[in-house]
Amino acid sequence: MAAYAKGGLRYLHKLNAANIPAELIQKGQNRVIDASLTLIRERAKLKGELLRALGGANAVASLLGVPLGHNSSFLQGPAFAPPRIREAIWCGSTNSTTEEGKQLEDPRILTDVGDVPVQEIRDCGVDDDRLMTVISDSVKLVMEEDPLRPLVLGGDHSISYPVVRAVTEKLGGPVDVLHLDAHPDIYDAFEGNKYSHASSFARIMEGGHVRRLLQVGLRSITSEGREQGKRFGVEQYEMRTFSRDRELLENLKLGEGVKGVYISVDVDCLDPAFAPGVSHLEPGGLSFRDVMNILQNLKGNVVAADVVEFNPQRDTVDGMTAMVAAKLVRELTAKISG
Q1: Within 13 Å of residue 249, how many CA atoms lie on the same side as its CB?
Q2: The organism sits in which domain of life (predicted)?
């Protein structure tokens, strides 16, 4: 077993050492996975039925939490982010209206199907190969209930791989991806971990899930990151040239000829002055309004999105970054719902 898969796999090792039959362990793992998927399925089915009964919605953003942090190369705090983001969305310190006037309290704009129980699954000794499949299957269950579209709350950035994979498999073809991040997350296998949060987009590109990948906000990129970008034909936009690229990035048109647009927002795309509650503080990033201009001016059919890498354990300024993450979710909701 790989060294990075600690926690639940240590428990599995103890069971193996105690000569517990592998078939018994497998049956138990299958029951936990089936129960987890059943909960997501039934929640999504209920929300879908209610929305279809209400009518008048072609697409509705549906929150799905994936509280996974163990694939982070530095701190694992992003596992605690989904409930903090939800709390910030509904905390009452601001109203529930998006900047273009959509009301989040309207179930035809935003709904919620809960979290994938990542830690409970890992505690049963389930490895990352199966866990990634569970995440993909959970996303597909949401997409099966028209008009729901997944808006995923991470978690570290490793979750983007199973989510994008599920979206493209369910839609039957590739998408264009707008990826906002300080880092390209395209190492082949960072620190030997093919599922590292720093390797998610290598897995995505290898799988043929994306036609165009645009990475915006980069300012911590190694030679391997540049080489991998060239290998996969990635369009990498670094902060050192942002003033030159601004007009292009604030007038993007994506998704024509493919199944739509996927947006992945790593909160550390923002300068730490705007979002200090992240694991990797990289000065020189985007302002919050830069991000809003890019997202709000984007033309394209947004079929799914994620917000990742918010670390509540580093959010020491009165929940400031939680509110930033919540605002990102609110405005992505407006982009998805229609």
Answers
A1: 25
A2: Eukaryota
**pTM of whole model > 0.85?**
yes
- Condensed to tens digits (0 to 9), the pLDDT of residues 135-164 reads 999 999 999 999 999 999 999 999 999 999
> Which residue is associated with the tokens 């039925």?
49
Omega within 30 of 0 (cis) for the link into 147? yes
pLDDT at 333: 98
Amino acid code (one letter) for 74: F
Mean pLDDT for 5-12 is 58
Give percent helix, percent strand, percent coil of the chain, each to the nearest 5. 45, 20, 35
User: In this structure, are residues 287 and 326 in contact, taking their beta carbons and an 8 Å threshold?
Assistant: no
Place of tokens 């979710």: 329
Radius of gyration, alpha carbons of the chain? 19
CB atoms within 10 A of CB 97: 13
